[in-house]
Amino acid sequence: MPSLNRSLNVIGRCGTLFRARRLEGTGVDPFNYFYLFRICREPGLSQDELSRALYVNKSSVTRHLSRLEEAGLLTRTPDPKDRRALLVHPTQKAMELLPLLREVGNDWQAALTDGFSPEETAQFESLLARAMENARKSADREEKS
Known about the structure:
Blueprint: H1 4-23, H2 32-41, E1 45-46, H3 47-54, H4 58-70, E2 74-79, E3 82-90, H5 92-112, H6 118-144
Antiparallel strand pairs: 1-3, 2-3
Helix pairs in contact: 1-5, 2-5, 3-4
């Protein structure tokens, strides 16, 4: 039986391939999917808030947001409360992609749980949520030390 780390890595890589195929031609690459989805759901986040929410370093956030901005999918404006911070907003083009982003996410979830009973799906989701919370706590502890 493969290790948990290997299984999670394979699931993540397969998810990237799945999103790449489904998002082809939209201007959204499989890695920008998570950024754009979050920005559409929470317009006006700062780049720092986005970095913390997605557990990604600030330089990666800046790089990904630049690509999305070049594709006409978001705008960045100075925060009126803190001129050093940039607030991120989706464009109309991005908002029009939101139903597709949701569909891709739902379809990937369905692919992962294919053949699971409703009870197994619920248990799988519960266990993953607990593992994710443990991962967040661990990452937060590491950041503070």
